[in-house]
Design a protein that fits this description.
single chain, alpha/beta, Growth Hormone, Chain: A, Rossmann fold, 9-stranded mixed β-sheet, 4-stranded antiparallel β-sheet, 18 helices, 16% strand
Length: 581
Amino acid sequence: MSVAQAPAAPVDAPESSDAPQPPGDAAEAPLSGRVATVLLGGSMLVMGACGIIYEYVLSVLGNYLLGSGHEEIFIIIGLMMFAMGIGAVVQRQMRGGLVDGFLVIEGVLGLVGGISAIAVHSVFAVSESYRIVLYLFAGAIGVLIGMEIPVLIRINREYASSLRTNLSQILSMDYAGSLVGALLFAFVLLTNVTLARIGFILGLTNVAVAVVGLIVLRRHVERPRTIAAFFLATTAVLVGGFAMAPDWTAWAEQRYFRDPIVHRETSPYQHIVITERGDRVGLYLNGHLQFSNVDEAIYHEMLVHPVMATAPRRARVLILGGGDGLALREVLRWPDVEEVTLVDLDPAVTRLAATHPALVEANGGALADERVTVRTAPVAPADETETAAVRSQRDTELLDRETHPVAEVHVLNLDADGFLAEAEGSFDVAILDFPDPKQLELAKLFSREFYRTLLARLAPDATIALQATSPFHAKRVFLCIGVTLEAAGFDAVPYRQTVPSFGPWGFWLAKPASAAGPAALRNELRAGVALPVPTTFVTSEVIAAATVFGKGALVADPPVEPNSKLDPVIVRYFREAWRHY
Protein backbone atom coordinates (compact mmCIF):
# COMPACT_ATOMS: atom_id res chain seq x y z
CA MET A 1 0.00 0.00 0.00
CA SER A 2 1.41 3.39 -0.92
CA VAL A 3 1.77 6.19 1.55
CA ALA A 4 -1.04 8.08 -0.17
CA GLN A 5 -3.34 5.10 0.26
CA ALA A 6 -2.47 4.42 3.92
CA PRO A 7 -5.27 5.17 6.38
CA ALA A 8 -4.69 8.36 8.35
CA ALA A 9 -3.85 8.01 12.05
CA PRO A 10 -6.55 9.31 14.34
CA VAL A 11 -4.89 12.55 15.49
CA ASP A 12 -7.45 13.05 18.25
CA ALA A 13 -6.99 9.64 19.81
CA PRO A 14 -5.77 9.76 23.41
CA GLU A 15 -2.21 8.79 24.22
CA SER A 16 -2.13 5.29 25.65
CA SER A 17 0.54 6.03 28.23
CA ASP A 18 -0.35 9.61 29.08
CA ALA A 19 -4.12 9.55 29.01
CA PRO A 20 -5.42 11.06 32.24
CA GLN A 21 -7.54 8.90 34.45
CA PRO A 22 -11.22 9.86 34.68
CA PRO A 23 -11.10 12.66 37.25
CA GLY A 24 -12.57 11.87 40.61
CA ASP A 25 -14.72 9.00 41.64
CA ALA A 26 -16.88 7.28 39.05
CA ALA A 27 -19.90 8.05 41.16
CA GLU A 28 -19.16 11.79 41.12
CA ALA A 29 -20.33 13.91 38.22
CA PRO A 30 -17.41 15.47 36.34
CA LEU A 31 -17.29 19.16 35.48
CA SER A 32 -19.44 20.20 32.57
CA GLY A 33 -17.57 21.05 29.39
CA ARG A 34 -18.59 24.72 29.62
CA VAL A 35 -17.38 25.12 33.23
CA ALA A 36 -14.13 23.33 32.46
CA THR A 37 -13.53 25.46 29.38
CA VAL A 38 -14.11 28.70 31.28
CA LEU A 39 -11.97 27.61 34.24
CA LEU A 40 -9.03 26.28 32.27
CA GLY A 41 -9.16 29.01 29.62
CA GLY A 42 -9.36 31.74 32.25
CA SER A 43 -6.47 30.15 34.14
CA MET A 44 -4.40 30.12 30.97
CA LEU A 45 -5.22 33.80 30.29
CA VAL A 46 -3.99 34.82 33.74
CA MET A 47 -0.97 32.52 33.53
CA GLY A 48 -0.02 33.91 30.13
CA ALA A 49 -0.15 37.45 31.50
CA CYS A 50 1.93 36.51 34.54
CA GLY A 51 4.46 34.64 32.42
CA ILE A 52 5.23 37.57 30.13
CA ILE A 53 5.41 39.99 33.06
CA TYR A 54 7.88 37.69 34.85
CA GLU A 55 10.09 37.94 31.77
CA TYR A 56 9.81 41.72 31.69
CA VAL A 57 10.48 42.13 35.41
CA LEU A 58 13.70 40.14 35.32
CA SER A 59 14.75 41.78 32.04
CA VAL A 60 14.25 45.30 33.36
CA LEU A 61 15.90 44.38 36.65
CA GLY A 62 18.89 42.96 34.78
CA ASN A 63 19.12 46.14 32.74
CA TYR A 64 18.98 48.34 35.84
CA LEU A 65 21.54 46.31 37.79
CA LEU A 66 23.95 45.42 35.01
CA GLY A 67 23.55 48.53 32.87
CA SER A 68 23.93 46.52 29.66
CA GLY A 69 20.78 47.71 27.96
CA HIS A 70 19.09 45.59 25.34
CA GLU A 71 21.45 42.60 25.61
CA GLU A 72 20.29 41.75 29.12
CA ILE A 73 16.67 41.86 27.99
CA PHE A 74 17.45 39.62 25.03
CA ILE A 75 19.47 37.16 27.11
CA ILE A 76 16.89 36.78 29.87
CA ILE A 77 13.93 36.39 27.52
CA GLY A 78 15.92 33.93 25.39
CA LEU A 79 16.98 32.00 28.50
CA MET A 80 13.41 31.81 29.78
CA MET A 81 12.13 30.62 26.40
CA PHE A 82 14.81 27.94 26.33
CA ALA A 83 13.92 26.91 29.88
CA MET A 84 10.26 26.69 28.87
CA GLY A 85 11.31 24.06 26.34
CA ILE A 86 13.03 22.14 29.11
CA GLY A 87 9.89 22.37 31.21
CA ALA A 88 7.80 21.02 28.35
CA VAL A 89 10.08 17.97 28.22
CA VAL A 90 10.12 17.50 31.99
CA GLN A 91 6.33 17.42 32.28
CA ARG A 92 6.27 14.27 30.14
CA GLN A 93 7.39 12.37 33.21
CA MET A 94 4.15 13.28 35.01
CA ARG A 95 1.77 10.32 34.70
CA GLY A 96 -1.12 10.37 37.15
CA GLY A 97 -2.45 13.15 39.34
CA LEU A 98 -2.24 15.87 36.70
CA VAL A 99 -4.54 18.21 38.60
CA ASP A 100 -2.37 17.90 41.73
CA GLY A 101 0.71 18.47 39.58
CA PHE A 102 -0.77 21.56 37.95
CA LEU A 103 -1.73 23.08 41.31
CA VAL A 104 1.73 22.42 42.77
CA ILE A 105 3.41 23.92 39.69
CA GLU A 106 1.31 27.07 40.06
CA GLY A 107 2.13 27.35 43.76
CA VAL A 108 5.86 26.86 43.22
CA LEU A 109 5.82 29.32 40.32
CA GLY A 110 4.09 31.87 42.52
CA LEU A 111 6.68 31.42 45.27
CA VAL A 112 9.76 31.41 43.02
CA GLY A 113 8.53 34.19 40.76
CA GLY A 114 7.28 36.27 43.66
CA ILE A 115 10.60 36.41 45.50
CA SER A 116 12.78 36.56 42.36
CA ALA A 117 13.17 40.33 42.02
CA ILE A 118 13.87 41.05 45.68
CA ALA A 119 16.21 38.06 45.94
CA VAL A 120 18.31 39.13 42.93
CA HIS A 121 18.39 42.72 44.17
CA SER A 122 19.54 41.59 47.62
CA VAL A 123 22.28 39.36 46.23
CA PHE A 124 23.44 42.23 43.99
CA ALA A 125 23.99 44.33 47.12
CA VAL A 126 26.29 41.83 48.82
CA SER A 127 27.87 39.57 46.20
CA GLU A 128 29.41 39.50 42.76
CA SER A 129 27.35 36.39 41.98
CA TYR A 130 24.14 38.32 41.33
CA ARG A 131 24.26 37.61 37.59
CA ILE A 132 24.26 33.85 38.23
CA VAL A 133 21.34 34.23 40.65
CA LEU A 134 19.45 36.33 38.09
CA TYR A 135 19.89 33.69 35.41
CA LEU A 136 18.98 30.86 37.81
CA PHE A 137 15.69 32.53 38.68
CA ALA A 138 15.00 33.23 35.00
CA GLY A 139 15.68 29.58 34.18
CA ALA A 140 13.59 28.23 37.04
CA ILE A 141 10.60 30.42 36.16
CA GLY A 142 10.95 29.40 32.51
CA VAL A 143 10.92 25.69 33.40
CA LEU A 144 7.79 26.10 35.53
CA ILE A 145 5.98 28.07 32.81
CA GLY A 146 7.05 25.45 30.28
CA MET A 147 5.52 22.74 32.45
CA GLU A 148 2.20 24.45 33.24
CA ILE A 149 1.05 24.97 29.64
CA PRO A 150 1.28 21.35 28.40
CA VAL A 151 -0.04 20.02 31.71
CA LEU A 152 -3.08 22.25 31.36
CA ILE A 153 -3.53 21.03 27.78
CA ARG A 154 -3.42 17.43 29.01
CA ILE A 155 -6.04 18.19 31.67
CA ASN A 156 -8.24 20.00 29.16
CA ARG A 157 -8.12 16.97 26.86
CA GLU A 158 -10.78 15.40 29.03
CA TYR A 159 -13.21 18.18 28.12
CA ALA A 160 -12.20 19.33 24.61
CA SER A 161 -13.97 17.70 21.69
CA SER A 162 -10.78 17.30 19.64
CA LEU A 163 -7.06 17.91 19.74
CA ARG A 164 -7.27 21.02 17.58
CA THR A 165 -10.04 22.41 19.81
CA ASN A 166 -7.97 21.68 22.88
CA LEU A 167 -4.89 23.40 21.49
CA SER A 168 -6.83 26.42 20.25
CA GLN A 169 -8.61 26.87 23.59
CA ILE A 170 -5.44 26.81 25.68
CA LEU A 171 -2.90 28.42 23.37
CA SER A 172 -5.20 31.23 22.22
CA MET A 173 -5.79 32.23 25.84
CA ASP A 174 -2.06 32.03 26.54
CA TYR A 175 -1.30 34.40 23.65
CA ALA A 176 -4.13 36.73 24.65
CA GLY A 177 -2.78 36.72 28.20
CA SER A 178 0.64 37.72 26.90
CA LEU A 179 -0.84 40.81 25.28
CA VAL A 180 -2.78 41.68 28.43
CA GLY A 181 0.36 41.22 30.51
CA ALA A 182 2.46 43.38 28.21
CA LEU A 183 -0.08 46.21 28.36
CA LEU A 184 -0.43 45.94 32.13
CA PHE A 185 3.33 45.99 32.64
CA ALA A 186 4.00 48.92 30.31
CA PHE A 187 1.13 51.20 31.29
CA VAL A 188 0.16 50.26 34.83
CA LEU A 189 2.66 48.21 36.81
CA LEU A 190 5.99 49.66 35.71
CA THR A 191 4.89 53.24 36.33
CA ASN A 192 3.05 52.67 39.61
CA VAL A 193 4.64 49.69 41.39
CA THR A 194 8.24 48.81 42.23
CA LEU A 195 9.79 45.80 40.52
CA ALA A 196 10.03 43.95 43.84
CA ARG A 197 6.34 44.42 44.55
CA ILE A 198 5.40 43.50 40.98
CA GLY A 199 7.05 40.13 41.62
CA PHE A 200 5.02 39.54 44.79
CA ILE A 201 1.79 40.60 43.02
CA LEU A 202 2.46 38.10 40.25
CA GLY A 203 3.23 35.38 42.78
CA LEU A 204 -0.02 36.00 44.63
CA THR A 205 -1.88 35.96 41.32
CA ASN A 206 -0.44 32.55 40.47
CA VAL A 207 -1.41 31.22 43.89
CA ALA A 208 -4.90 32.69 43.47
CA VAL A 209 -5.30 30.82 40.19
CA ALA A 210 -4.21 27.63 41.94
CA VAL A 211 -6.60 28.21 44.85
CA VAL A 212 -9.52 28.66 42.44
CA GLY A 213 -8.48 25.45 40.72
CA LEU A 214 -8.28 23.67 44.07
CA ILE A 215 -11.79 24.78 44.98
CA VAL A 216 -13.43 23.99 41.65
CA LEU A 217 -11.52 20.77 41.01
CA ARG A 218 -11.47 19.60 44.64
CA ARG A 219 -13.17 16.29 43.73
CA HIS A 220 -10.30 15.50 41.41
CA VAL A 221 -7.44 16.49 43.78
CA GLU A 222 -5.71 13.56 45.45
CA ARG A 223 -4.04 15.51 48.30
CA PRO A 224 -6.22 18.57 48.89
CA ARG A 225 -5.15 19.22 52.49
CA THR A 226 -1.45 19.06 51.74
CA ILE A 227 -1.83 21.38 48.75
CA ALA A 228 -4.05 23.78 50.70
CA ALA A 229 -1.42 23.97 53.47
CA PHE A 230 1.26 24.67 50.86
CA PHE A 231 -0.84 27.47 49.37
CA LEU A 232 -1.42 28.96 52.81
CA ALA A 233 2.30 29.00 53.60
CA THR A 234 3.17 30.40 50.16
CA THR A 235 0.56 33.15 50.52
CA ALA A 236 1.94 34.11 53.92
CA VAL A 237 5.46 34.41 52.48
CA LEU A 238 4.30 36.50 49.53
CA VAL A 239 2.09 38.81 51.57
CA GLY A 240 4.89 39.33 54.08
CA GLY A 241 7.33 39.98 51.26
CA PHE A 242 4.99 42.50 49.65
CA ALA A 243 4.68 44.38 52.93
CA MET A 244 8.43 44.39 53.59
CA ALA A 245 9.54 45.00 50.00
CA PRO A 246 10.18 48.77 50.41
CA ASP A 247 12.45 48.18 53.42
CA TRP A 248 14.31 45.33 51.74
CA THR A 249 14.75 47.28 48.53
CA ALA A 250 15.96 50.36 50.39
CA TRP A 251 18.49 48.29 52.33
CA ALA A 252 19.75 46.53 49.21
CA GLU A 253 19.99 49.68 47.14
CA GLN A 254 21.75 51.65 49.87
CA ARG A 255 24.48 48.99 49.96
CA TYR A 256 25.90 50.16 46.63
CA PHE A 257 25.70 53.92 47.16
CA ARG A 258 28.27 55.56 49.40
CA ASP A 259 25.93 58.39 50.44
CA PRO A 260 22.44 58.04 51.94
CA ILE A 261 19.60 57.78 49.43
CA VAL A 262 17.12 60.62 49.84
CA HIS A 263 14.93 59.83 46.83
CA ARG A 264 14.45 56.90 44.51
CA GLU A 265 11.84 56.10 41.89
CA THR A 266 11.42 54.11 38.72
CA SER A 267 10.05 55.88 35.66
CA PRO A 268 9.05 54.13 32.43
CA TYR A 269 12.54 54.93 31.14
CA GLN A 270 14.98 54.47 34.01
CA HIS A 271 15.61 54.08 37.73
CA ILE A 272 16.36 57.40 39.41
CA VAL A 273 18.27 57.80 42.67
CA ILE A 274 19.28 60.98 44.48
CA THR A 275 21.88 60.73 47.27
CA GLU A 276 22.90 63.36 49.77
CA ARG A 277 25.50 63.64 52.51
CA GLY A 278 26.02 67.06 54.04
CA ASP A 279 26.44 69.44 51.11
CA ARG A 280 27.22 66.66 48.61
CA VAL A 281 24.40 65.69 46.24
CA GLY A 282 24.50 63.02 43.52
CA LEU A 283 22.04 62.02 40.81
CA TYR A 284 22.16 58.45 39.48
CA LEU A 285 20.25 56.98 36.53
CA ASN A 286 20.18 53.17 36.38
CA GLY A 287 22.99 53.13 38.92
CA HIS A 288 25.29 55.42 36.92
CA LEU A 289 26.37 58.79 38.30
CA GLN A 290 25.01 61.69 36.24
CA PHE A 291 26.44 64.47 38.36
CA SER A 292 27.88 65.28 41.75
CA ASN A 293 27.45 68.86 42.85
CA VAL A 294 31.02 68.76 44.16
CA ASP A 295 32.41 69.09 40.61
CA GLU A 296 29.47 69.29 38.20
CA ALA A 297 30.25 72.95 37.50
CA ILE A 298 33.42 71.86 35.71
CA TYR A 299 31.45 69.61 33.36
CA HIS A 300 28.54 71.94 32.69
CA GLU A 301 30.62 75.08 32.29
CA MET A 302 32.89 73.27 29.83
CA LEU A 303 29.84 71.99 27.94
CA VAL A 304 28.00 75.31 27.75
CA HIS A 305 30.33 78.32 27.80
CA PRO A 306 32.67 77.50 24.89
CA VAL A 307 29.72 77.12 22.53
CA MET A 308 27.94 80.20 23.88
CA ALA A 309 31.12 82.28 23.60
CA THR A 310 31.79 81.30 19.99
CA ALA A 311 28.21 81.62 18.72
CA PRO A 312 27.59 84.81 16.68
CA ARG A 313 24.05 84.90 18.13
CA ARG A 314 22.47 83.31 21.20
CA ALA A 315 18.84 84.37 20.86
CA ARG A 316 17.41 80.83 20.46
CA VAL A 317 19.11 77.99 22.30
CA LEU A 318 18.26 74.29 22.08
CA ILE A 319 19.25 71.87 24.85
CA LEU A 320 18.78 68.17 24.06
CA GLY A 321 19.00 66.07 27.20
CA GLY A 322 20.05 67.86 30.34
CA GLY A 323 16.77 67.32 32.16
CA ASP A 324 18.49 68.03 35.48
CA GLY A 325 18.54 71.73 34.54
CA LEU A 326 22.26 72.23 35.15
CA ALA A 327 23.16 73.07 31.55
CA LEU A 328 20.10 75.34 31.47
CA ARG A 329 21.42 77.14 34.54
CA GLU A 330 24.62 78.01 32.67
CA VAL A 331 22.79 79.04 29.50
CA LEU A 332 20.61 81.47 31.45
CA ARG A 333 23.69 83.34 32.64
CA TRP A 334 24.06 84.85 29.15
CA PRO A 335 22.06 88.10 29.01
CA ASP A 336 21.26 88.04 25.27
CA VAL A 337 19.47 84.66 25.37
CA GLU A 338 15.82 85.17 24.45
CA GLU A 339 14.44 81.65 24.29
CA VAL A 340 15.57 78.22 25.45
CA THR A 341 13.97 74.93 24.43
CA LEU A 342 14.95 71.99 26.61
CA VAL A 343 14.02 68.52 25.34
CA ASP A 344 14.38 65.56 27.70
CA LEU A 345 12.73 62.17 27.30
CA ASP A 346 11.88 61.49 30.93
CA PRO A 347 9.27 63.71 32.64
CA ALA A 348 10.33 62.29 36.01
CA VAL A 349 13.77 63.87 35.68
CA THR A 350 12.49 67.31 34.74
CA ARG A 351 9.87 67.09 37.49
CA LEU A 352 12.50 66.30 40.09
CA ALA A 353 14.76 69.05 38.74
CA ALA A 354 11.90 71.50 39.27
CA THR A 355 10.71 70.28 42.66
CA HIS A 356 13.31 68.30 44.63
CA PRO A 357 15.10 70.71 47.00
CA ALA A 358 18.57 69.26 46.40
CA LEU A 359 18.25 69.47 42.60
CA VAL A 360 16.58 72.88 42.71
CA GLU A 361 19.50 74.20 44.75
CA ALA A 362 21.97 72.61 42.33
CA ASN A 363 20.37 74.06 39.19
CA GLY A 364 19.59 77.41 40.75
CA GLY A 365 15.86 77.00 40.22
CA ALA A 366 16.26 76.95 36.44
CA LEU A 367 13.21 74.70 36.07
CA ALA A 368 11.26 75.52 39.24
CA ASP A 369 9.98 78.92 38.20
CA GLU A 370 6.19 78.85 37.94
CA ARG A 371 6.42 80.54 34.55
CA VAL A 372 8.22 77.57 33.01
CA THR A 373 5.84 75.37 30.99
CA VAL A 374 6.45 71.62 30.73
CA ARG A 375 5.03 70.19 27.49
CA THR A 376 4.63 66.64 26.20
CA ALA A 377 3.77 67.43 22.59
CA PRO A 378 5.62 68.82 19.57
CA VAL A 379 6.21 72.55 19.38
CA ALA A 380 2.84 74.31 19.43
CA PRO A 381 1.87 77.17 17.10
CA ALA A 382 3.01 80.56 18.31
CA ASP A 383 -0.47 81.66 19.36
CA GLU A 384 -0.86 78.56 21.55
CA THR A 385 2.55 78.62 23.24
CA GLU A 386 2.41 79.35 26.96
CA THR A 387 5.77 80.58 28.19
CA ALA A 388 6.99 83.28 30.50
CA ALA A 389 10.20 85.11 31.22
CA VAL A 390 12.48 83.34 33.65
CA ARG A 391 14.34 85.90 35.70
CA SER A 392 17.92 85.30 36.67
CA GLN A 393 20.42 87.35 38.64
CA ARG A 394 23.75 88.53 37.29
CA ASP A 395 26.48 90.85 38.54
CA THR A 396 26.43 94.42 37.29
CA GLU A 397 29.42 96.67 36.95
CA LEU A 398 28.63 98.12 40.40
CA LEU A 399 28.62 94.61 41.90
CA ASP A 400 25.07 94.98 43.17
CA ARG A 401 22.49 92.31 42.52
CA GLU A 402 19.84 93.28 40.00
CA THR A 403 17.09 91.24 38.39
CA HIS A 404 16.94 91.13 34.61
CA PRO A 405 14.61 89.22 32.28
CA VAL A 406 16.71 86.60 30.57
CA ALA A 407 14.82 84.01 28.57
CA GLU A 408 11.66 82.22 27.66
CA VAL A 409 11.99 78.53 28.46
CA HIS A 410 10.10 75.62 26.85
CA VAL A 411 10.54 72.17 28.38
CA LEU A 412 9.44 69.28 26.16
CA ASN A 413 9.42 65.67 27.41
CA LEU A 414 10.03 64.05 24.04
CA ASP A 415 12.46 61.81 22.26
CA ALA A 416 15.07 64.19 20.83
CA ASP A 417 15.06 62.44 17.45
CA GLY A 418 11.29 62.79 17.17
CA PHE A 419 11.43 66.41 18.27
CA LEU A 420 13.93 67.40 15.60
CA ALA A 421 11.83 65.72 12.93
CA GLU A 422 8.92 68.07 13.71
CA ALA A 423 10.59 71.18 15.14
CA GLU A 424 10.04 74.48 13.34
CA GLY A 425 12.30 77.49 13.04
CA SER A 426 16.05 77.54 13.56
CA PHE A 427 18.33 77.62 16.55
CA ASP A 428 21.46 79.71 17.10
CA VAL A 429 23.01 77.31 19.62
CA ALA A 430 22.42 73.62 20.29
CA ILE A 431 23.77 71.78 23.33
CA LEU A 432 23.60 67.97 23.35
CA ASP A 433 23.84 66.50 26.84
CA PHE A 434 22.98 62.85 26.20
CA PRO A 435 24.09 59.78 28.20
CA ASP A 436 26.99 57.82 26.75
CA PRO A 437 26.13 55.69 23.68
CA LYS A 438 26.27 52.35 25.47
CA GLN A 439 22.93 51.08 24.12
CA LEU A 440 21.30 50.93 20.71
CA GLU A 441 18.50 53.28 21.74
CA LEU A 442 21.12 55.90 22.65
CA ALA A 443 23.37 55.24 19.66
CA LYS A 444 20.84 56.86 17.30
CA LEU A 445 21.41 60.18 19.10
CA PHE A 446 25.06 60.02 18.00
CA SER A 447 24.33 59.00 14.42
CA ARG A 448 25.03 60.69 11.11
CA GLU A 449 21.29 60.82 10.38
CA PHE A 450 20.54 62.51 13.71
CA TYR A 451 23.25 65.13 13.19
CA ARG A 452 21.96 65.84 9.67
CA THR A 453 18.46 66.40 11.02
CA LEU A 454 19.91 68.71 13.66
CA LEU A 455 21.85 70.61 10.99
CA ALA A 456 18.60 71.32 9.17
CA ARG A 457 17.21 72.94 12.34
CA LEU A 458 20.17 75.29 12.84
CA ALA A 459 20.84 78.80 11.65
CA PRO A 460 23.56 78.93 8.93
CA ASP A 461 26.19 80.19 11.40
CA ALA A 462 24.97 78.29 14.45
CA THR A 463 27.28 76.48 16.85
CA ILE A 464 26.73 73.20 18.71
CA ALA A 465 28.45 71.44 21.60
CA LEU A 466 28.09 67.91 22.89
CA GLN A 467 29.50 65.69 25.57
CA ALA A 468 31.47 62.84 24.04
CA THR A 469 32.54 60.44 26.86
CA SER A 470 36.17 59.97 27.88
CA PRO A 471 38.86 60.53 25.21
CA PHE A 472 41.22 58.49 27.38
CA HIS A 473 39.12 55.48 28.42
CA ALA A 474 36.97 55.40 25.28
CA LYS A 475 39.18 56.97 22.65
CA ARG A 476 37.52 55.32 19.64
CA VAL A 477 34.07 56.39 20.82
CA PHE A 478 35.30 59.96 21.22
CA LEU A 479 36.86 60.01 17.76
CA CYS A 480 33.83 58.27 16.22
CA ILE A 481 31.63 61.17 17.34
CA GLY A 482 33.93 63.64 15.60
CA VAL A 483 34.05 61.59 12.39
CA THR A 484 30.27 61.27 12.43
CA LEU A 485 29.83 65.02 12.86
CA GLU A 486 32.07 65.63 9.86
CA ALA A 487 30.17 63.04 7.79
CA ALA A 488 26.94 64.86 8.64
CA GLY A 489 28.23 68.21 7.36
CA PHE A 490 29.88 69.86 10.37
CA ASP A 491 33.31 71.30 11.02
CA ALA A 492 34.16 69.80 14.43
CA VAL A 493 36.82 70.62 17.02
CA PRO A 494 37.54 68.42 20.07
CA TYR A 495 38.33 69.65 23.57
CA ARG A 496 38.62 68.01 26.97
CA GLN A 497 38.76 68.60 30.70
CA THR A 498 39.20 66.46 33.79
CA VAL A 499 36.11 66.12 35.96
CA PRO A 500 37.10 64.38 39.23
CA SER A 501 33.90 62.31 39.43
CA PHE A 502 34.40 60.97 35.89
CA GLY A 503 38.07 61.39 35.07
CA PRO A 504 39.27 62.78 31.71
CA TRP A 505 36.20 63.88 29.78
CA GLY A 506 35.72 64.96 26.19
CA PHE A 507 33.53 67.36 24.24
CA TRP A 508 33.09 68.44 20.63
CA LEU A 509 32.37 71.93 19.34
CA ALA A 510 30.99 72.15 15.80
CA LYS A 511 29.59 74.50 13.16
CA PRO A 512 28.00 73.86 9.77
CA ALA A 513 30.85 73.09 7.37
CA SER A 514 32.40 76.10 5.64
CA ALA A 515 35.40 76.91 3.45
CA ALA A 516 37.37 77.94 6.54
CA GLY A 517 37.09 74.42 7.97
CA PRO A 518 37.54 73.45 11.63
CA ALA A 519 40.86 75.33 11.87
CA ALA A 520 39.05 78.67 12.13
CA LEU A 521 36.97 77.49 15.09
CA ARG A 522 40.00 75.93 16.77
CA ASN A 523 42.02 79.12 16.35
CA GLU A 524 39.19 81.16 17.82
CA LEU A 525 39.14 79.00 20.92
CA ARG A 526 42.90 79.11 21.34
CA ALA A 527 43.02 82.87 20.88
CA GLY A 528 40.84 83.28 23.94
CA VAL A 529 37.09 83.77 23.94
CA ALA A 530 35.30 86.42 25.95
CA LEU A 531 33.27 85.20 28.93
CA PRO A 532 31.05 88.09 30.08
CA VAL A 533 29.24 85.87 32.59
CA PRO A 534 30.09 84.64 36.09
CA THR A 535 31.70 81.19 36.21
CA THR A 536 33.02 78.90 38.90
CA PHE A 537 35.77 77.12 36.96
CA VAL A 538 36.00 78.07 33.30
CA THR A 539 38.20 80.90 32.05
CA SER A 540 39.31 81.88 28.58
CA GLU A 541 42.70 80.31 29.30
CA VAL A 542 41.09 77.04 30.45
CA ILE A 543 39.09 76.83 27.20
CA ALA A 544 42.18 77.55 25.10
CA ALA A 545 44.19 74.86 26.90
CA ALA A 546 41.34 72.35 26.59
CA THR A 547 41.83 72.14 22.80
CA VAL A 548 45.37 70.79 23.21
CA PHE A 549 45.74 66.99 23.23
CA GLY A 550 48.77 64.81 23.73
CA LYS A 551 50.70 63.11 20.96
CA GLY A 552 48.59 60.49 19.16
CA ALA A 553 45.48 61.20 21.27
CA LEU A 554 43.44 62.09 18.18
CA VAL A 555 44.63 59.24 15.97
CA ALA A 556 42.82 55.90 15.81
CA ASP A 557 44.44 52.73 14.53
CA PRO A 558 42.59 51.29 12.70
CA PRO A 559 40.54 54.35 11.73
CA VAL A 560 37.05 54.64 13.16
CA GLU A 561 33.92 54.67 11.00
CA PRO A 562 31.02 57.13 11.18
CA ASN A 563 28.13 55.96 13.32
CA SER A 564 24.75 55.48 11.64
CA LYS A 565 21.34 54.18 12.63
CA LEU A 566 21.70 51.14 10.39
CA ASP A 567 25.29 50.46 11.46
CA PRO A 568 25.65 51.62 15.11
CA VAL A 569 29.38 51.01 15.34
CA ILE A 570 29.65 53.40 18.27
CA VAL A 571 28.03 50.83 20.58
CA ARG A 572 30.72 48.31 19.68
CA TYR A 573 33.45 50.88 20.24
CA PHE A 574 31.96 51.76 23.61
CA ARG A 575 31.83 48.18 24.84
CA GLU A 576 35.31 47.40 23.61
CA ALA A 577 36.63 50.45 25.45
CA TRP A 578 34.89 50.16 28.82
CA ARG A 579 35.13 46.40 29.09
CA HIS A 580 38.59 46.82 30.63
CA TYR A 581 37.53 49.25 33.35
